């Protein structure tokens, strides 16, 4: 596995702090002022057409709509990239999970799919810009599973990525937890010369090329 820097740089840490301040401190105030602008202009309050006030409210609305619009755009972009990567790695005879056995969390840049027929699992995590984990697991590749509310964790035998986690609706997370438990009691054969984890690691080179990123697991 390639050696990569998984922790955030100073710039990335600063960006996380900026987003925290915006969403939890600035945005509630901006939404309040935006609501006030609707009340003022809909009721034709005196001074409601004051140029300075109008300019202020325009800035308020821009400060609300532009970041939220950008967030929506990037979320949809991550979703599209995740689906493309899943499509690149899927094969009817190796990995073709049913809809109810998949979780796609575009907000966190994560995907987990479980193929109950072939006993294979695919996990993708867009860790940060330029770095994506693409991990294939078979029934021998993980050691334990854990469910905590909406969080499903899968413990692996990989020292660099010992725990894989996804968040879903509690009902969905519970279903996947139970599915993994049932699969653990079954025996799955492998008619191929390479295992599913090896196949995913090899195919991940195409993910690196297609998306211009580093996939530590690629070989």
UniProtKB/TrEMBL annotation:
Q: What is this protein called?
A: Ethanolamine utilization protein EutG
Entry keyword set: Membrane, Plasmid, Transmembrane, Transmembrane helix
Highest taxon in the source lineage: Bacteria
What organism, scientifically named, is this protein from? Rahnella sikkimica
Residue spans crossing the bilayer: 20-41, 53-74
């Amino acid at each position: 596995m390639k050696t990569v820097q998984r922790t955030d740089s100073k710039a990335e840490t600063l960006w996380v702090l900026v987003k925290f301040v915006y969403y939890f401190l600035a945005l509630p105030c901006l939404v309040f002022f935006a609501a006030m602008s609707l009340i003022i202009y809909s009721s034709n309050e005196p001074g409601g057409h004051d140029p300075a006030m109008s300019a202020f409210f325009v800035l308020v609305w821009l400060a609300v709509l532009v970041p939220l619009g950008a967030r929506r755009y990037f979320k949809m972009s991550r979703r599209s990239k995740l689906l493309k990567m899943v499509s690149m790695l899927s094969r009817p005879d190796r990995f073709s999970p049913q809809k109810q056995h998949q979780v796609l969390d575009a907000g966190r840049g994560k995907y987990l799919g479980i193929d109950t027929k072939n006993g294979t699992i695919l996990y993708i995590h867009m860790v940060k810009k330029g770095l994506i984990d693409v991990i294939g697991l078979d029934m021998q590749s993980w050691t334990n599973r854990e469910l905590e509310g909406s969080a499903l964790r899968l413990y692996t035998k990989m020292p660099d990525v010992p725990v894989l986690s996804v968040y879903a609706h509690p009902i969905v997370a519970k279903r996947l937890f139970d599915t993994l438990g049932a699969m653990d009691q079954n025996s799955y054969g492998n008619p191929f010369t390479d295992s599913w984890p090896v196949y995913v690691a090899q195919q991940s080179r195409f993910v690196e090329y297609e998306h211009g990123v580093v996939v530590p697991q690629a070989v």
